[in-house]
Amino acid sequence: MNKVIIVDASESDRRLMSGLLTRAGYEPIAVDKMEAAKDEVAKLPPGAVVVAAMKFTGGTAQELINWQKHEGYKFPVVAVVDNLNPLEIADVMKDGGAVNIIQRPAIDKQLVETVGKYARPENSVLVLADGLIPRKSKTFSDILETVKTIAATNANVIVFGESGTGKEQVARQIFQNSSRTESPCIILDAGSAALVGKHDPKSGQSEIYNRIKGYFAKCAGGTIIVKNIHLLNFDKQSVLLHILETEHPDVRVIGTADPDLLGMVTAKTFRPNLYYMLRQSEIVIPPLRDTPEDIEPLAGYFLAEHAQKTGEEQKKINLSAMKALKVHPWPGNVRELKDVILFAVLHTDGDTIMKEDISFFQSEPEVPVKLALRNETVEKQQIMTALEKTDNNITQAARLLGVSRTTLTYKLRYYGLRKGN
């Protein structure tokens, strides 16, 4: 039974949508506030759908979509709109990121049919494994060796990497290779309600302190994995620092973080003393675009997993499709590759995935790329490398370089390089 989250400030419309979806065989979860919506999205199983009003208590559909992207969730969001004209609706779906819309006056006619287009049976959805997925790059082999080395110590660790690179899987691997496996391991998200609280005048201590202290007490002798530590606000940072610095709990902390954390430390929006206490050791996971040799084995793994889960014959990827995968910049990294492969499997009739079966997401955030043009003394070589990787395709080379096609065309003329196609 597919779950559908309904986020709407109107109690009567929440009841109406819940009733319609229940009768259609779905399991609706109705909330009216942004924080409640985030909590429910974080618990959603594969194949679920989000139905969100354009505006609701504490947020908007656009903000919820942006939060999903930042956290790496890709549940389709259907927006409930109020009498928008066609141009405004196009903006909601293209720039807003909604996959479809429902007109509020036509909820009873449009809701079930629209949700049905995006809800997927759980057995047709792949979930990233808790363990590490086999890869063949030397970079990843080095990471495995570093995991073993760090796991043998009791040092706190920060695992750095962009969204979708598998930071949590590496963090779990450190725990599983450590001497603390017989003790508890708790996984917390720094941006979730699990660490949110208010001051309690009766105890004289903040609820944030009580909650975090409680997690350390439950985890005595074990490990706490704090996902997305860059999302810790200053109050949470202060409490965590106090506990680690003054109470010295017998708990190892493994944090995961976006590379942005380093800039936050420099800007003093993340406490340097807490940063260095957490980063007694570190692992840096490169983006997938820096290890293109991993794309083929990862794609093969996802194809095999889907075949095993569904009992279907495993599909193959032809050379042109694989080439398209290898030149894509992968802003969503391994998680995005998994979604692209699954989409291709579900939309390919034959036993082989062709280039035309590969569909990349169009509304992706701009990602800093290793080949981005920053230094004039080396950018000519960077351009030549990007062109070589893309067979002189200007559009794909521009995406790989992290610049616009117009900028790249200007640079090609400036350096007297052949434009290609």
UniProtKB/TrEMBL annotation:
<dbReference type="Pfam" id="PF25601">
    <property type="entry name" value="AAA_lid_14"/>
</dbReference>
<dbReference type="InterPro" id="IPR058031">
    <property type="entry name" value="AAA_lid_NorR"/>
</dbReference>
<keyword id="KW-0547">Nucleotide-binding</keyword>
<keyword id="KW-0067">ATP-binding</keyword>
<dbReference type="Pfam" id="PF02954">
    <property type="entry name" value="HTH_8"/>
</dbReference>
<dbReference type="InterPro" id="IPR002078">
    <property type="entry name" value="Sigma_54_int"/>
</dbReference>
<dbReference type="InterPro" id="IPR003593">
    <property type="entry name" value="AAA+_ATPase"/>
</dbReference>
<keyword id="KW-0805">Transcription regulation</keyword>
<dbReference type="Pfam" id="PF00158">
    <property type="entry name" value="Sigma54_activat"/>
</dbReference>
<feature type="domain" description="Sigma-54 factor interaction">
    <location>
        <begin position="133"/>
        <end position="346"/>
    </location>
</feature>
<dbReference type="InterPro" id="IPR025662">
    <property type="entry name" value="Sigma_54_int_dom_ATP-bd_1"/>
</dbReference>
<feature type="domain" description="Response regulatory">
    <location>
        <begin position="3"/>
        <end position="119"/>
    </location>
</feature>
<dbReference type="InterPro" id="IPR027417">
    <property type="entry name" value="P-loop_NTPase"/>
</dbReference>
<dbReference type="InterPro" id="IPR001789">
    <property type="entry name" value="Sig_transdc_resp-reg_receiver"/>
</dbReference>
<dbReference type="InterPro" id="IPR009057">
    <property type="entry name" value="Homeodomain-like_sf"/>
</dbReference>
<dbReference type="InterPro" id="IPR011006">
    <property type="entry name" value="CheY-like_superfamily"/>
</dbReference>
<dbReference type="InterPro" id="IPR002197">
    <property type="entry name" value="HTH_Fis"/>
</dbReference>
<protein>
    <submittedName>
        <fullName>Sigma 54-interacting transcriptional regulator</fullName>
    </submittedName>
</protein>
<keyword id="KW-0804">Transcription</keyword>
